[in-house]
# Entry
Amino acid sequence: MVSRMGCFSNIDKSIQFFAFLSIILAAYISLVQLRYHENFFTFAWDLGIFLQSLDTFINYGKLFYNTVELTFNPSGSYFGIHFSPILFLFAIPYAIFPHPFTLFFTKNVMVYLTSTILYMIGRKSGLSKLSSVMVALSYIFFIPLYGPLTFDFHPYTSLPFFISLIHYFVLQDNVKKSFMILLPGLATVEFASIIFIFYGISLLLKNRRSFAKLIILTSVTWLLISMIIIISLNPTQLNYYFSMISYTNTVRHIGGELLYKASYFFICYGLLLFLPVTSPYYGILSILPWILIASLSYHLPYCSPYFQYASFITSQLFIAIIDSLSKIRKRTTLLVMISVNLLIVNSTLAIILGPIGLGLMDYMSSYDRPASYETTIRYDIYNVDTPNKYAIYNALNLVLSNYSILVPNHIFPHIVRDNSYVSFLPKVTGWPIIYEDLQLQKLTEIHLFSLHSKQPFLGDRRDTRLIINGQSFDLKMIENNSTIYLRKFIKLDRFLFESRIKPVLTNISQVILATNAFQLGLATNGHIIFILYPQRREPIVEFSEVRLEQNKWYFISLKINRNEVKLSLDGKEIIKIKNHNLVVAWLVDNVDYVLLDSSTSLWNFRIGTLLIILDKRYQLVAAGDGIMVFKKTDSPYSGDLINLTEPKYLAYIYASDEPSGEPVMTMPLSKLYWKPIYGPISPYCINVTLVKRLGDVQLTGAEDFAFVYPSEQAYSADNITIHCSARIRGKINISESGYYRIKTTYEIPSTIEIYVDNIQVCSGEDVYLELGEHEVEILWRKIRRPIFNIEFKKLKE
# Structure
C-alpha cells in the first residue's frame, strides 16, 4: 500500500491538478447540460439520435438503430450516416447508467482531459512548468471549445483527446502506444481518417517518418473500410458526399459568406495570438482538410463557435503553439511573456464573450447557433425553466412503452425507444398531402421599370429584351418606363426578360419588371427580390444573396417555363423556383400516439414546420398547457379528457370558421399566458379536403419540404382554405379584487370573442373582478397565423 501511494505521489502535481480540474469542470458543464435537457432544450438532432442508437443496441441488439433519419438512411443504423465504432465504448458506461448525463459527462471529461495531455506535451517539448500550465489553461478557456462541450452529444468531440495523446507518445518515440490510441481516434468518425492523414503528413515533414508512415497507412485503410461500411448500409449516403463536394454547392455559397467564414478562422487563430501560424505543419497543414470543407461548404454551422465542429482543429492548434514556443524555450523571459498573454487573452475573452461569462458574443456576432441557444442564460441553471415542462412529463407518462409515438424534435430525446418517431415516414407514420402542380396566373399586363408610375427603377438600362411564348417585343431602344397591355389573357409557356441595368440608388425599393403574375425588383437593401403570384396559393417571395452596388452595370435574365423559374445575374443563377408539387401537410395514420407541443417556438424540423392532419380514428385524450395527446382508437373515444395541468386551459381546434363540432385537425397554437409573451414561429392554418388517393406518385420537391423519397402512395389535395378556429377555455385566479384591463394580441384579420364568467368583454375594456377564481372562454375565428396572447393587468385605484 505504501509503495502504491508513493508511486502516486511521484506524479507531477500539475498533472494531478489538471486531471482533478477536468473532472470538476466536466461535472459542472454536464449538470448544466442536464438542466437544459430536463427543460427540453435538447433535440432529436443530435442527442436523440445517440440516445436511441445506444438504447436499441444495448436492449435490442440492433446496430445503433435510430428512427430519426430513416427518410435518408433506410437501414436505420447510425453507421449508415457516420462510421463511429467508438460508440461501442460509450455503450459500456451507458449500459451501466442509461441516462443522458452519462453521455454528457463522459464526453466532457475527455474534452477537458486534453488540457492535461497538452501540459504533458509542453513539458516533453522542453517548456517550463509555468509555461506548460498556462498553455493548458488557455485551452480550457478557448472559446470555440464551448461548442463541443455544451451542444448535445457527438462522439467525435473526443477527437482532440486522442490526437493530443498520440502526439505525446510520438514525442516519447513509443510506436506501440501511439498505434493503440490511433485506432479509437479513427473510430470517432470517418472524417477523422482524413484529419489523421494530414497529421501524418505533418509528422513526415517533421522527420518523424516511422510514425508518419504508420498513421497515414492505417488512416487510409480505415477510410476505405469506413466508406464501404457506410455505403453498404446506406447507398443513398453516396449522393450526400457528391453534393457536399459539388461545384454548385461550393461556388454558390462561398462568395456571400466569405467574411463570415474568414472571421471564424480569424478568431480561432487570433485568440491564440496567431502562434499556430509560426508552426505551419501542425497549425495549418494538419487541419487543412477542415479549413477547406468549412470554407467551401454551404453549411454555416461549420464556421460557428456554438457547434461541435471545433473538435476537428483544437488539439492541433495547441500542439502548434507548443511546437512554436519550444523553439524559444531558452529565451525564458519571452516565453513567459507570450504564455501569460495567451492565458490573459483567452481567460478575459472567455469571461466577456463566452457562454460561461457575460455571453456578449451573442450581441457582437451573427454566428449560427443551435435552437434556443442564448449564452446569456446558457449557464444560468436556476433561471432556466420551460413553463409547460410538467405537462409534457405528464403526457409522456400516459404513453405505454410498447406503443409507437410521434413527438416533436425537442421531446424526442425523452422517449427514445425503437418505436418512437420524430420524422414523417411514408408507410410508417403516414402519408404526405401534396398540392397539384403550381399554376401561374395568365398574363394581362406588363410593366417595365415601374409599376403604375410607382417605385420606378432609378438608374440606367439598355439592351432590354422580352419574349413571351415565342413572340418578341422590340425594346432595345427603350428609354422611358413602359406598360404593355395584352389584348387577351396569355397562358405562360415560355417567358424571357433580359436587360442590362445600372442602379443609381440601392436603398430605395424599385421595380424592374412587374406583371399580374410575378414581380422583379430591388429591395431597400439592394438585394434582388422576386415575387411569384400563383393561382390558388400564397405568393412566393425569394431574395437573392447578392447585393447590387450603385453605378455598376449588371446583366439580369429572367426565364420562366411550366417547370421552373430561373433568375440569373451576370450569368450566375441566383434564384430558382420549381413549379412542381409541394408537400403542405402530413396525414398521420399509422402510429399509436401523437404528442404535440403547441406552445413551442423551437425549430421542430418536420413536426411544426408542416401541418399535421390526423386520421379520423385519432381522438384527443389529454390536453393542457399547450400539450395535446392523441390516441388511435378502433372506436370513438368516450373517456373524459385528461387535463394535464389543472389550473391551466384546454384548447379545442376546429377545421372551420366556426368553433363547433369535434376537433379534426391539430395545429401548433400559441400558449395562452396571463402575461405578455412573444408569439412562437408557427405555420399557417390550412384545411385540406382529401379528394382522391394516387398510386406511384412522384413527390417532386419533397426533399425540400418533407425530406422523403417518392412513395408508392400519396394524396392529392383540393379545396384548399386557410381558415380555422379555436375554442379556448381556462380559469384565472384573482388575488386582489379591483379593475383589470384586458389586452390581447392576435393575428389580423382573425377575430376573437372573450367571455369572463359567461359575460362578453372587449379587449382594452376595464372590468371589475372579485377575489377568487373566474371562468374564461375565448372564441377565435378565421385564424391564419396561430399567434395569440392575452394579459389581465391590474389597474391602480
In short: The CA atoms of residues 405 and 749 lie 35 Å apart.
